[in-house]
Structure of Nucleoside diphosphate kinase:
Amino acid sequence: MALERTFSMIKPDATRRNLTGAITRMLEEAGLRVIASRRVWMSRREAEGFYAVHKERPFFGELVDSMSSGPTIVQVLEGENAIARNREVMGATNPANAAEDTIRKVHALSIGENSVHGSDAPETAAQEIKYWFSDTEIVG
């Protein structure tokens, strides 16, 4: 199995509830290692840029508002099959459909306030990591 990197974000709904440590612990207990991490408060422009792929969707404005409403933790995770592992640990987008003991089942409030984001493919991971981190900030 190959060592892989992925992007992870702890969203404002979770940072407001002081869940940064609890969520990071769940990621680490799943075998993922945090190799870069930063607390940011996204501007509207940054949120629009990061979520540009959803620009034409009806929820885009609400998403941008939510993501720019408070501090967010942006992270780079590393581990065996990190992308798939992170998505497994996050659970389904809708917390009602998430498996037991996943981040979203335990911590999410709703589909919109689902506490975390994670890359869905190697190309997306590379793009999302590059959006928030320079190569010198990733110190795994």
Remarks:
- The chain has a mean pLDDT of 96.
- Residues 122-132 form the longest helix (11 residues).
